[in-house]
Amino acid sequence: MAKFFNEMTADGLAHNASAEVREHYREFCGWLQRQSAETIERKRAEADLTFRRVGITFAVYGDDAGTERLIPFDTIPRIIPAAEWKQLQTGLVQRVKALNMFVHDIYHDQNIIKAGIIPAEQIYKNAQYRPEMQGINVASDIYAHIAGVDIVRAGQGEFYVLEDNLRVPSGVSYMLEDRKMMMRLFPELFARNKIAPVDHYPDMLLDNLRSVAPMGINDPTVVVMTPGMYNSAYFEHAFLAQQMGVELVEGKDLFVSDNTVFMRTTRGPKRVDVIYRRLDDDFLDPLAFRPDSSLGVPGLLSVYRAGRVTLANAIGTGVADDKSIYPYVPDMIKFYLSEEPVLNNVPTYQCRKKEDLAYTLANLAELVVKEVHGAGGYGMLVGPASTKAQIEDFRQRLLAKPDGYIAQPTLALSACPTYVESGIAPRHIDLRPFVLSGKTISMVPGGLTRVALQEGSLVVNSSQGGGTKDTWILER
User: Fold this and answer.
1) Are strands 405-409 and 349-350 parallel, antiparallel or unpaired?
2) I want to staple 274 with a disulfide (CB 3.0 to 4.6 A). Which of 86, 136, 222, 421 is the partner?
């Protein structure tokens, strides 16, 4: 059995009562050993019942079992000591700062292309590149106001960035609800451990959105724009609007007049200054993008281009979170900030390159292959967990469209003890911290820990059967 870094114990194979417990887990582990199996099972059932009652679900498109599912919640937290979090936070701030500078650059002077660091075709042929944004100035030069950066741990415990999510990153509501649930179920743990709070995230988000309002607006009106109740993340849209105390709107609730965006209210039209939009570029404005979109606001792009409304995240930001751009992020950090990256990328083979494609084809059984535009754990091959037929199918896809894929080594992701049917067992995890960019770059300590509940699985996405854990950052 392959070894991996165990978050709780210095044992890379399984949860072992005799294994040495890592220092930052000792308090929790001592508490856990004093709990009866019946107590823990009762608490787990209470959590499931509460989550279902509150409506904390997500939709799975095309799922025959029903449109709504409960995301499994695990009561064993993922704990990170203060020193490790400080390193992570420094690296995340650095990375998101460089990514914002990159998006501004490609829509303005394009210095990174002129310097020969990124080939021009990687930008102009990118499905997320929006020529409509060329030369357009956005408030404070911020494009990715909310970034969800996926962090994994491998080897001897080194952190790596697996993915940058800069379009409409989701999951922060589960981070907040998981914490609320743990505090409800186990208040004694929070009395004993100095755990950094996360419940102020909605206030931070609102302050961040207000800080990037159009120039001259002193008391901006902020709204959350949702595609509607059938969207997989609708719970989160409604949750964040309610927590920030702002209106949740759909495209039909907004209209453009006099180069201004207005919201329909019972008291008449009200100007909207900042839109936290949770739908993709293509659907924002039927006059500019997809003419068949009934989700957007006709004329929105013209108001945006005139600088009279802020969209978070900005149109065209997706060019920076495409997997074909990911390999260049360390170079962006060096180019824009003149700094060495604090957080490393996972080594990546770009299949559009002849030599990288040849290596990938020769080693498919050992690699993870991903579509450059893929998301949610779909459109990927995990070589060691795939059949010969699946590998051969992917070989044909690669040969037909090599520039549509990247490949990476199969990392032995770190694991955290997790309650499963057989008891406590290690399951692989990742971490998605949420980074807010406005007048400053800020983040709450922690993020959403996702866990692959199937034994041996490396796919943590909720749409693929993954669950979540509370993430504790210790303050000492």
Assistant:
1) antiparallel
2) 222
Q: In the structure, what pLDDT confidence band is assigned to residue 231 with cuts at 50, 70 and 90?
A: confident
Return the sign of the alpha-carbon dihedral for residues 239, 242, 243, 248.
positive
Question: What is the C-alpha separation between 47 and 211, in angstroms, rounded?
Answer: 36
Kindly list the distances between the CA atom of residue 41 and the CA atoms of 35, 69, 185, 424, in Å, as whole numbers in the listed order: 10, 20, 12, 12
30 CB-side CA count, 13 A? 9
Contact 226, 249 (CB under 8 A): yes
Of 68-77, 233-242, 292-301, 383-392, least confident by mean pLDDT is 68-77
Residue 200 has pLDDT above 90, yes or no: yes
The candidate with the shortest Cα–Cα distance to 446, out of 418, 470, 428, is 470
Percent of the chain with pLDDT over 70: 93
CA distance 270 to 298: 17
Pairing relation of β-strands 146-154 and 367-371?
A: unpaired
CA distances for 373 relative to 233, 325, 403, angstroms: 19, 10, 11
Q: Are 472 and 82 in contact (CB under 8 A)?
A: no
Residue 301 φ/ψ, nearest 5 degrees: -60, -40
Residues 116, 122 contacting (CB under 8 angstroms): no
Q: What are the Cα distances from residue 115, in Å, to 128, 281, 300, 332, 335? A: 22, 29, 34, 11, 9
Q: Please enumerate in sequence order all residues whose Cβ is within 8 A of that of 179, keeping only pairs 6 or more positions apart, or say none.
A: 198, 199, 446, 470
Q: Are 381 and 368 in contact (CB under 8 A)?
A: yes
CATH topology of domain 347-410: Dna Ligase; domain 1 (3.30.1490)
